[in-house]
Amino acid sequence: MILSNTEEIPGRQIVEFYGVVSGSTVRAKHFGRDFMASLKNLVGGELKGYTELLHEARTEALDRMKQQAQSVGANAVVNVRFSTSSVAQGAAELFAYGTAVRVE
Amino acid sequence: MADLIGLLILLLVTYLTGRWFERKHFASIRAREQQLAPVVITTLRSVPGDRPVVQAALVTGSVVVSLDYFKRFLAGLRALIGGRIRAYEPLLDRARREAMLRMREQARARGYDMVINMRLETSRLASAASNGKGTAGVEILAFGTGIKLAP
């Protein structure tokens, strides 16, 4: 499964379009519970725990999108976009979407 | 009185640690930017020039950063009168550069020569502890399409 955020996969020819595929996950951010992060919030700098959490969540959203693309018979997703929204206090939805295609 | 002294100590300590972390981070960013200079980033949607592309795939880099207590305190004061909040500018600058560096590091690790159609996204993480009012951190995501050119 090839992903790309361009309109086509460079170097490949798109032979079929399957429409929009998407994947999402909602994660709570362990605020208040995560002592290290609240400490780090005082001294400033990177909150590594959150970086990892969001990275994992985004990877999962991408995986779900890939699964959906696979189920419709695509072998690539073009024009991939991300969106992050706070749906509730301390929780965020990570959403990935794109157009499933078959290339070459 | 004890509260005030506590606050002043907290401000002083976080001022020093915040400044130290920021300097260290900027030094590391500058060093890695030089190291990764061969991995070109562009916001163009296609590969400039007409070299054939061997391989292409999505690359991402992200980082969550937060202000130190001292700067947040300053920013809070500044927000009362409005205007430019300098405390936040270096934070967002280093976060963006760090996210782009991580994206380039991923691109290089996978053997790509360049990244096209680079996009940046910023989202604020609301803190649950302060009823969603306080900002716990800001996440910057950099993503693009890694390109491997024909030799």
Would you mind describing this structure in some detail?
The complex is a heterodimer of chains A (104) and B (151). By secondary structure, chain A is an alpha+beta fold. Chain A is built from 2 helices and 5 strands. Chain A has helices at 35-43, 48-71, and strands at 2-3, 14-28, 45-46, 76-88, 91-103. In chain A, strand 4 and strand 5 (91-103) form a beta hairpin. The model of chain A has no long low-confidence stretch (mean pLDDT 87). With 151 residues, chain B is an alpha+beta fold. Chain B has a single domain (2-149), classed as Hypothetical protein apc22750. Chain B (Translation Initiation Factor IF3). A 4-stranded mixed sheet of chain B has the order 1-3-4-2, with helices on one face. In chain B, a hairpin with an 8-residue loop joins strand 3 (114-126) and strand 4. Chain B starts with a helix and ends with a strand. Classes of the chains: A alpha+beta (104), B alpha+beta (151). The interface between A and B is large, with 38 and 50 residues. Strand 3 of chain A pairs antiparallel with strand 2 (53-66) of chain B, so a sheet runs across the interface.
Q: How is the quaternary structure best described?
A: heterodimer
Described by strand count, sense and barrel closure, the largest sheet of chain A is: 4 strands, mixed
Proper CATH architecture of chain B: 2-Layer Sandwich
Rg result of chain B: 19 Å
Compile the SSE list and pairings:
The complex is a heterodimer of chains A (104) and B (151).
Chain A: E1 2-3, E2 14-28, H1 35-43, E3 45-46, H2 48-71, E4 76-88, E5 91-103
Chain B: H1 2-35, E1 40-41, E2 53-66, H2 69-81, H3 88-109, E3 114-126, E4 135-149
Parallel strand pairs in B: 1-3
Antiparallel strand pairs in B: 2-4, 3-4
Helix pairs in contact in B: 1-2, 1-3
